[in-house]
Amino acid sequence: MEIAVIDYKGGNVQSVLFALERLGVQATLTADHDTIRRADKILFPGEGEAASAMQELRAQGLDKLLPTLEQPFLGICLGMQLLGQHSEEGDTELLGILPFEVKRFAADSQHKVPHMGWNNLQRLRTPLFEGLREEDFVYFVHSYYAPVGNYTIAEAAYPAPFSAAVQHRNFYAVQFHAEKSGPVGTRILQNFLAL
């Protein structure tokens, strides 16, 4: 099985590669269009800022390629947000694969921004979460979120509900860091690889 991890100079790529390695899977870090098209599965991790990420994706022509892919695709953290239509972060136009707007969390006395740490998953749907339970915990670090919509396949709350995971056709994505979420995250990666 050929696994491609999209290289657009986004942060957190090495953690994802190490997580795959622990599962006995060798992945190729690449921005090469032919390698990406040939891959059986695609991972799109990222940490950072939406405008800079989109600038890099456009510079490599990945903004045109990624929406055309038909193999199973998993966005992680910023890689989930970039699948939306628009982000409040830098007033940025995104890839437009899923119909959501990325919003900034509003801080209050109980909830600091960024949302950082362990939070539980709710309303799990799709085979991505097979073998997991409602209320399982995963690790988040983010200041922006996708609201809950008909694309939502898992929710979390901070304090209001937001999309912890989304799906549209072959495009799956998680807002949390699956690669840093212990056994729960490992199971999610295994489930994705089995799609």
From TrEMBL:
Signal peptide: none
InterPro entries hit by this protein: Class_I_gatase-like, GATASE, Imidazole-glycPsynth_HisH
One Pfam short name: GATase
Keywords from the UniProt entry: Amino-acid biosynthesis, Cytoplasm, Glutamine amidotransferase, Glycosyltransferase, Histidine biosynthesis, Hydrolase, Lyase, Transferase
GO biological process entries: L-histidine biosynthetic process
SUPFAM superfamilies referenced in this protein's UniProt entry, alphabetically: Class I glutamine amidotransferase-like
Pathway in which this enzyme or protein is active: Amino-acid biosynthesis; L-histidine biosynthesis; L-histidine from 5-phospho-alpha-D-ribose 1-diphosphate: step 5/9
Subcellular compartments: Cytoplasm
Catalytic reaction list: 5-[(5-phospho-1-deoxy-D-ribulos-1-ylimino)methylamino]-1-(5-phospho-beta-D-ribosyl)imidazole-4-carboxamide + L-glutamine = D-erythro-1-(imidazol-4-yl)glycerol 3-phosphate + 5-amino-1-(5-phospho-beta-D-ribosyl)imidazole-4-carboxamide + L-glutamate + H(+); L-glutamine + H2O = L-glutamate + NH4(+)
CDD domains named among the record's database cross-references: GATase1_IGP_Synthase
Stated role: IGPS catalyzes the conversion of PRFAR and glutamine to IGP, AICAR and glutamate. The HisH subunit catalyzes the hydrolysis of glutamine to glutamate and ammonia as part of the synthesis of IGP and AICAR. The resulting ammonia molecule is channeled to the active site of HisF.
Subunit structure: Heterodimer of HisH and HisF.
Protein name stated in the entry: Imidazole glycerol phosphate synthase subunit HisH
Organism from which the protein derives: Solirubrum puertoriconensis
Gene: hisH
